[in-house]
């Protein structure tokens, strides 16, 4: 969804690019591509977005054609209603995109929003909790420090940049016979009889969440961290100069 996001100083961070699926609490989270490109430079089929919104608000004919005037009336009414009209100064098409993200995130995002940004134009990602977005001087902003964004990319894919905001907790679980997964034995653990889990609280952009990482991370509070995701799952972590991999890259 090409929607420009800024920091509180008015500096352009990037554009909303993908849905973030990793954490259970991430239903309202999206990935902001950190880029110098602006939304008007990205191709997207706005008619698809409008058609979906029109179907939700019963603004289509029997044959599915969008009733543009009816949809515009509904959208402008929503502009007045949502949070006491604080988005009235937002451009019409941008408000449609924002409304789509706020109310209809997740299940339809990847199906409806098809958008390609050249990989060499993206420096990485930070996360956006769409329910915590602010409007400042006609711009959509996240009111958080972004001092953890680093240019170093170590795994050949673009990372989500963030910071650990609380004390990590490392848990060691001893895998006795009763603790094994159904149908498995100790050989499935590579000869080990225990597993390590590092629980961290991380912030990225304006999104804060808890993650259980299945390795012992040498990570501390206030340390920068990068998550590398493949097929919507975290496959490696980079922090304090060390790459931690789990699963197949």
Structure write-up:
The chain is built from 4 helices and 13 strands. A hairpin with a 2-residue loop joins β9 and β10 (207-213). The strands form 2 sheets. Strands 7, 8, 9, 10, 11, 12 and 13 form a 7-stranded antiparallel β-sheet that branches. The two termini are 27 Å apart. The chain is an alpha+beta fold and 249 residues long. The chain has helices at 46-56, 68-81, 92-103, 109-112, and strands at 4-7, 12-19, 29-35, 122-129, 134-136, 139-142, 160-164, 169-174, 194-204, 207-213, 224-230, 233-239, 242-245. It folds into 2 domains: 4-142, no CATH class; 160-245. Mean pLDDT is 82; it is low at 177-188.
Protein traits:
single chain, about 250 residues, alpha+beta, 2 domains, seven-stranded antiparallel sheet, six-stranded mixed sheet, 4 helices, 13 strands, about 15% helix
Could you tell me how far the N terminus lies from the C terminus, measured between alpha carbons in angstroms? 27 Å
Q: How many strands appear in the DSSP assignment?
A: 13
Number of helices: 4
Provide mean pLDDT, rounded: 82
- Structural domain count: 2
Note the overall shape.
Answer: elongated
Helix content: 10-25%
Structural class: alpha+beta
What can be said about the biggest beta sheet?
7 strands, antiparallel
What is the percentage of strand-forming residues?
Answer: 25-35%
Order of helices and strands: EEEHHHHEEEEEEEEEE
Query: Low-confidence parts, pLDDT < 50 over ≥5 residues?
Result: 177-188
Gyration radius from CA atoms, angstroms? 21 Å
């Amino acid at each position: 969804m090409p929607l420009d996001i800024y920091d509180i100083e008015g500096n352009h961070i990037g554009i909303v690019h993908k849905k973030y699926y990793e954490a259970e609490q991430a239903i309202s989270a999206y990935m902001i591509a950190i880029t110098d490109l602006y939304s008007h430079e990205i191709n997207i089929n706005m008619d698809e977005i409008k058609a979906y919104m029109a179907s939700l608000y019963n603004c289509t004919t029997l044959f599915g054609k969008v009733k543009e005037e009816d949809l515009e009336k509904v959208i402008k009414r929503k502009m007045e209603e949502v949070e006491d009209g604080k988005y009235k100064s937002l451009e019409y098409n941008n408000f449609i995109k924002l409304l789509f993200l706020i109310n209809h995130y997740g299940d339809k995002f990847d199906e409806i929003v098809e958008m390609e940004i050249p990989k060499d134009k993206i420096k990485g990602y930070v996360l956006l909790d769409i329910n915590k977005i602010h409007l400042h001087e006609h711009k959509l902003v996240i009111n958080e420090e972004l001092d953890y964004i680093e240019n170093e990319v170590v795994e050949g894919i673009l990372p989500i940049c963030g910071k650990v905001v609380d004390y990590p907790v490392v848990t060691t679980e001893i895998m006795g016979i009763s603790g094994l997964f159904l149908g498995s034995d100790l050989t499935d653990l590579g000869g080990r009889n225990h597993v390590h889990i590092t629980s961290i609280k991380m912030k990225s952009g304006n999104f804060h969440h808890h993650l259980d990482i299945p390795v012992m991370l040498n990570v501390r509070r206030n340390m920068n961290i990068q998550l590398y995701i493949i097929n919507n799952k975290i496959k490696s972590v980079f922090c304090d100069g060390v790459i931690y991999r789990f699963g197949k890259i």
